[in-house]
Amino acid sequence: MRLIFLGPPGSGKGTQSEFICKDFHIVQLSTGDLLRYHRKNGTELGKKAKEFMDKGELVPDDLIIEIIRNELKKKEYSNGFLLDGFPRTITQAEALDKLLAELNLHLDAVLVLNVPTEELITRLTARRTCPICGKTYHLIYNPPKVDGKCDLDGGELYQRSDDNEETVRNRLEVYEKQTKPLIDYYQSKGLAYFIDGIGKIEDIYSRLKAILDSIKKN
Ligand code: AP5
Ligand code: MG
Question: What is the fold, at CATH topology level, of the domain defined by 2-26+79-217?
Answer without folding.
Answer: Rossmann fold (3.40.50)
